[in-house]
Fold this protein.
Amino acid sequence: MIAEAGHYALVLALGLALIQSTVPLIGARWRDVALMNVARSTALAQLLFVAASFAALVMLHVTSDFSVVNVFENSHSLKPLIYKITGVWGNHEGSMLLWVSILALFGGLVAAFGNNLRLSLRAHVLAVQAWIASAFYLFILITSNPFLRIANPPIEGRDLNPVLQDIGLAVHPPMLYLGYVGFSISFSFAVAALLEGRIDAAWARWVRPWTLMAWIFLTLGIAMGSYWAYYELGWGGWWFWDPVENASLMPWLAGTALLHSAVVMEKRNALKVWTILLAILTFSLSLLGTFLVRSGVLTSVHAFATDPTRGVFILLILCVFIGGSLSLYAWRASALKQGGLFAPISREGALVLNNLFLTTACATVFIGTLYPLALEVLTGDKISVGAPFFNLTFAPLFVPLMVAVPFGPLLAWKRGDLLGAAQRLTAAGIAALIAIAVLWAWTYGGSTLAPVAIGLAVFVIAGAFSDIVERTGLFRIPLKTSLQRAGGLPRATWGTLFAHAGVGVALIGIVCETTWNSEYIGSMKPDDVAKLAGYELKLDGVTQRQGPNFREMVAQFTVKLDGEKLSVMTPSKRNFTTRESSTTEAALLTRGASQLYISLGDTAADGAIAVRIYHKPLVLLIWWGPVLMAFGGTLSLSDRRLRVGAPKPAKAVRGLQAAE
Amino acid sequence: MTRKQRRLTMIGGSLAVLAVAAALVLNAMRDSIVFFSTPSMVAEKHISAGKRFRLGGLVQQGSLKRGDNLAVSFTVADGSATLPVAYKGILPDLFREGQGIVAEGALDSAGVFKADTVLAKHDETYMPKDVADALKKQGHWKDDYAAKPSASAAPPSTQGASRAAQGAPQ
């Protein structure tokens, strides 16, 4: 009954989406207010029905109704409740349902909070949003229905892939989808602007917070996924340049570029055409990511369903939306009015440079991800493009970008003073040089590149602070006045500081982890001691334990530093009976930002156990960086300037600008 | 600066960055692309020692030998040829004899494939796509490679019961 209700709700949502995708457009053409307002009510109703459908699937999983194929294939009655819930999106059908639920959520948010949007713009935006929704409802209903029943219900389910039975599944996919799908809003706004043939600074004011929100979620989602892979897969790696990872990195790079070009558009009314293009590209890359992950075209460490009908269907959606929006762009972009002028050396110029490097870096990831696929389709040759390729292309493009990051906020709009900015960055530059010199002396004879890279990171972090120091007049005027000024600064300025500093922090983590990571691999018997990076790890013993739906072998290690007992670590190996597969549960010991990492291998006949121990210096900075970036983004999002006065027409915004 | 000059500067700058990026990509394509081979392709192509490639195939039954200190050796077969593989370290959880794997590394002078990574998927029915395609092409594909061990016992379902729908981190 619940399954049928969920299925029916999804069909109704499709019906509503079809209405929402046509009626408001007719209304906009006829200038009929009532018809345009249909968009709002249908968007909200659609959200209601999709939510009901999603809730139905959650119910089915929670109650372990094995008469439903999706539950039977991915659940087990003994599975802990949390994994019964997260298992809903741990499979193809459920995760697509989550995808459309989030799409409907964003549509509903625009409908609910878009009261002061221009009526025809809102009608257009929601209509475009409904086109996307309709396509994906059809996809789910035709090829990936999660509500199908089995004729003879089995007693027990097949259980969820053990790797996915982790708290990471609760957080990572929803976050990532909030990011991916969140970019649909800027896409809808861009297509709406093209359809209407008009675009102004008020448009940018609307697009920027939505883009920012999607970007925050995507940043956290990627970071979370990376940390999950790090502790769950047991290899201690945090980024594999796997196509599935690249699929999420590409929209992030394009989205970061979009975020910055939208600033130019909002403040200076320039780069309009480019911003529109970026908005289209960003969401296109999100769709591409969905295609790569969901169609099973990839050879990757990620196991996903292979079903050609699905692949072809998503490919079709991809072609229609990307091809359609780009054709519309080619046809209509020239109709948009030109923006303001600026010199190459200016805040605008710096943001253009940022966009240039981000999009180029994104293009190299794109080539590295899709070239092997294209080559295989065209010639049948199989190649794999791994980390070395991306290190040789992506990294060199990111270095100049990092050097330029601190300069951007210090340049004035319209015409900047590069020399002045450089002078104000002297302190940051000196800090960077000192960092390089100290590190080089400390690790003498080691890698020369690592101290330089860390120096660059220090430059980015110190440079981010330079802007605030400059603005508050710190060290030049009395401290009290400085603090008052600091309190008076817009939150967006603080947001920039944290976001830019986060990039530097992440870079330090990446460099330290890759350069000074040390490992011990060997087989150990009880009472054996492994020494690594000053730590002594003694294997106390191995015990067997029974979990809810698995058996596990737990090894206990006592960790000592300088003869003093620090802690006990218990890595384990779990054996899931239903799927006859096992997972490695690594044990982590956090010391500041560094970590000790133990994962277990096989047991030999003589009772010795294969052990892999890593010491990863400052590894946590890799994820603290993105968290800082997301925090910066949240600060910017809470800025008054973004919340208040958004719908003002272009003229009034200009007036405000002068007052700033 | 006029609109035209500004545009020219921007286009010039963009072209310069794109040219650099293109050069980087072409350079990286030349050096760091890893080709995929099966044991019989290795025999045909006479891949020189030290050249990195990915080796795919099935781990031959009874070939797995464990040495001291986590050294392992096994033989990878694709139906018509075999290749000995040496590896040191912890094998993936799902590494088993008879299972499809992909190993990355290079041949040494004695013709042994020294692997530095060995991949097996987190799925008991997993056959790496490359391996499956290569086996099919050579006519050694048997349908039971792909079938789930429990497929015969599974109740009839309305769609693809043998499909293992799974996700993985990221």
